[in-house]
Amino acid sequence: MPDTPPDRLATNPASEFHDADALARGIGVRFKGNERTDVDEYCISEGWIRVALGKKVDRRGAPLTIRLTGPVEVWFLDKQDAKDDTKLSGIPASPAE
């Protein structure tokens, strides 16, 4: 799998933009300079994210969403975790008592 996240990704399995492999790696999203963890769908090229609108649901029980426009940055979380692991690997383990 490439190191760049897809241009468009959705968490809803019914969407044509759903990619379970990419979601399993973990996706980080920064929107307008703030990291967001509540993103349901994003598109980098069009510059928008879709987030749930509070706890409101439609008549089928699916959450109501709103599309917010602005600059979107996306990265895979497993790459970041790998960098963090290399920092910790140089620390010696404490002796067992």
Describe the model.
The protein has 2 helices and 7 strands, in the order E-H-E-E-E-E-E-E-H. It has 97 residues and is an alpha+beta fold. Strands 1-4-5-6 form a 4-stranded antiparallel sheet, with no helix packed on it. Strands 3-2-7 form a 3-stranded antiparallel sheet. 9% of the residues are buried. Residues 85-94 have low confidence and may be disordered.
Q: State the domain count.
A: 1
Q: Order of helices and strands, N to C?
A: EHEEEEEEH
First and last CA, distance: 43 Å
Uncertain runs are 85-94
Properties at a glance:
alpha+beta; four-stranded antiparallel beta sheet; 7 strands; three-stranded antiparallel beta sheet; 97 residues; 2 helices
What's the SSE blueprint?
Layout: E1 8-10, H1 20-25, E2 27-31, E3 34-36, E4 39-43, E5 48-57, E6 63-69, E7 72-76, H2 77-88
Antiparallel strand pairs: 1-4, 2-3, 2-7, 4-5, 5-6
Summarize the structure.
With 97 residues, this protein is α+β, with helices and mostly antiparallel strands. The protein is built from two helices and seven strands.
